[in-house]
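How a chain folds remains the central question behind the approach discussed here. For one protein, we set the task of working out the C-alpha cells from the amino acid sequence alone. The sequence in question and its C-alpha cells are set out directly beneath this paragraph.

_____
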Amino acid sequence: MEIVGFCVFLQSQNKVYIKYNRIIVMAKELKDLTKRSENYSQWYNDLVVKADLAEQSPVRGCMVIKPYGYAIWEKMQRILDDMFKATGHVNAYFPLLIPKSYLSREAEHVEGFAKECAVVTHYRLKNAEDGSGVIVDPAAKLEEELIIRPTSETIIWSTYKNWINSYRDLPILCNQWANVMRWEMRTRLFLRTAEFLWQEGHTAHATREEAETEAQKMLHVYGDFAEKYMAVPVIKGVKSANERFAGALDTYTIEGLMQDGKALQCGTSHFLGQNFAKAFNVQFVDKNNKLDYVWATSWGVSTRLMGALIMTHSDDNGLVLPPHLAPIQVVIVPIYKNDEQLKQIDAKVEGIVAKLRELGISVKYDNADNKRPGFKFADYELKGVPVRLVMGGRDLENNTMEIMRRDTLEKETRTCEGIEEYVKNLLEDIQNNIYQKALNYRNAHIYKVDTYDEFKEQIEKGGFILAHWDGTPETEDRIKEETKATIRCLPFEADEESLTPGVDMVTGKPSARRVLFARAY
C-alpha cells in the first residue's frame, strides 16, 4: 500500500494507528491504474477490470460481467423497466434463433447486419472415430441455417402477423430483455462486444402519426433516464440517412460526450414505417373496414450504457458513480484498537445502518477483519461508492463520524445526531453535482465552425462540432473518410443561428442548418 499526502501516527499499547487527514490511500491495484491524461483508452480498460465490473471471457469478443458490474446493470434495468411499464409497455420474450430466410425479407435490414451474423448450421456433435475429441456430425446439417439474433425485428414481426387482424388488436407495445450477438472484429468491454445485453422495444400501430409519436416518446424516456439517473447530459436528435438503423425511415438518438472528447451513442429509437409489416405481410382491417399495413417502431439501449457511465464521470482514482445507480450508496468502515472497541462501534453503527435503510439508502457496514482500513478506503474509492462514513474510537467517544464524498473527495466530521437525513441530502447533492460537472464539460466542448480547415483542426482536439452540411450522403462520406468524424444527429434543440440556412463547409452548396459532428465510439 502507498500513502500519498500526509498523516499523523498515534501510538498506543505498542501498536501504531494512522489518522487519515485529507489523503488519498492507494491500494496496489489502484496504484497501477493508468492516468486518463496518459492513455485514456488504457485507463478505461484498466478501470473496468480493476473495479471488478467485467473481464474478458474465453470466447473471443465476449465478456464476463462480474457481480459488481451486474449490480449496476440491474439497477439500470429495474429503473428502465419501470419507466417502460409506466408508458404502457409490457415484457415478452422471443426466440434467440432466427431462420435465415427471415432476414432476407427486408433487403435493407439484411444488408445492414449480414456481416455481423453468427450462423448455426448443425444441431449435433459426435465423438471422432480416431478418439481425437468431439466433432460436428455432418449428418446433422440443418435444412435451413439459423441466425443468432443480431436484433429481433424479423422474428417478432413474423409473430405479430399471428396477433394482428383488426385495429382493435392495436397498438401492441412489447419490450424484451435479452442478449444479442453481433460478430464484432474489434471489441472493448461494454462499449462493443460480440455478445451484449440489452432491451429492445417493438411496437405496432394503426397510423403513421401514432408510430412516429411512439418513437420520439421513447427517445425522451431514454433521455430522461440518462440525465436523471446516469447524470449523463445528452443531445437528442435525428440521424442522417447514412447513420439510420437498417430498415428504418428515421432513427432518433441520444448522444453523450465522453471525457476524451469522443461521442457515444447512448440509445436509439427507430420509426420503421410499414417496411417490416410489408415484408411479413402484417395487415389489419382499419376503422373504415379497409385493409392496411401496420406501422412499426423499435428502440433499445444496451450494456453500452455502462461504458457511458464510466467514461463520463470517473477519474484517476477510479469509478465515480451517480448515487441513483450505485449498488452501494454508503459504506461504513470502523477503525478500532481491539475487539471490545469494535463491538462498541458495531452497536453504535447498527442503528445508523437501520435508519439509512429505512430512508431507502443502500448501505454496507464493512467490519471484516481480513483487510486494513486503508485498503478498504482505496477499494471503495476505486469502485465509486458515493459516500464513505468512518467511525473510530475517538468518534465513538464524541458521537461523531467522518464523511467523505466520492465526487470531490472532500471530508468533514459531523455529529451522529441526524446524520441519516444529512447523508440522504448529500447523496442528492452528489447526484446533481456529478450531472452539472458533466454538463459544464459538454457545453464547453461544443464548437461552431464555418470552414473545412477549421473543422479538420478542431476535430483533432475532440468535442462536438456544429457545422453546415449540404444534406448529401456523398459529402457526409467524404468527411468521414478524411477526418473519421460522423454526423451524430440533427439536434432537436438548437439556437436560432444553428437553424438558419448557410453554406456547406466542404462543397459550398446551400445548407438548411448546422448538424452535429464528432468522432465516436
Remarks:
- The two ends are 35 Å apart (CA to CA).
- The longest helix spans residues 419-444.
- The chain has 15 helices and 31 strands.
- The longest strand covers residues 195-205.
